Amino acid sequence: MKEDSIQQAMCLYLVTDQRWVHHSFYEDIEEALKGGVTCVQLREKHMDNQSFIEEAKEVKKLCEKYHVPFIINDNVEVMLAVNGDGIHVGQHDMQAKDVRKRIGPNKILGVSVHSVEQAVSAYQAGADYLGVGAVFSTQTKDDAIVVDKQTLRDICDAVSIPVVAIGGIHHENIMALKDTGVAGVAVVSAILAQEHIQQSAIELKEQVLLL
């Protein structure tokens, strides 16, 4: 993907979580896509690879239908097996430079960072975008490190790739991220836990565009 395309894809980034299922997992993701999410990351920390692959194939079809990038969380084997658009890794997963070697130059590589030092290191290792958080306290990730607004701003200033804020973001607090330099936000429950998933995505995207 071209750099400007990745920038656009980071606007409203959906991270999946099986804990928030209203109708069916796939229906809920499609509702979010109808609402305008610009990227989907499939996150399955406790699923065997074969099941993960089967699920990934279905989610990839939905992403292709709505022309948004499909990212796999932390599993290079699954991403390569389904030919996903990219992969996202954390600080405790495989090193970014090693991931880049495995996936080649044309796949999207996202890296979670919590400091300027980590951000610069990930950028130099070939990351295409950074996920920074948690910017607010969150119940979705038990071990989340809270990153203050100034650090978020400093990270955005330190690298020339898109930065996505993640962690505890919802309709009521998203505007606190204004003027930080983020390309967009990544959310889970702010969309998937809501009664009206599509409408929640529409409203969140409207707010992101004001950041």
Q: In total, how many domains does the architecture comprise?
A: 1
What distance separates the N and C termini? 24 Å
Main sheet makeup: 8 strands, parallel, barrel
CATH fold label: TIM Barrel
Helix content: 25-40%
Architecture (CATH level 2) name: Alpha-Beta Barrel
Strand order of the largest sheet: 1-2-3-4-5-6-7-8
Succession of helices and strands: HEHEHEHEHEHEHEEHH
Explain the overall architecture.
This protein is α/β, with parallel strands linked by helices. It has a single domain, classed as Alpha-Beta Barrel (TIM Barrel), CATH 3.20.20.70. The chain is built from 9 helices and 8 strands. Helix 2 crosses helix 9 and helix 3 crosses helix 4. The relative contact order is 0.17.
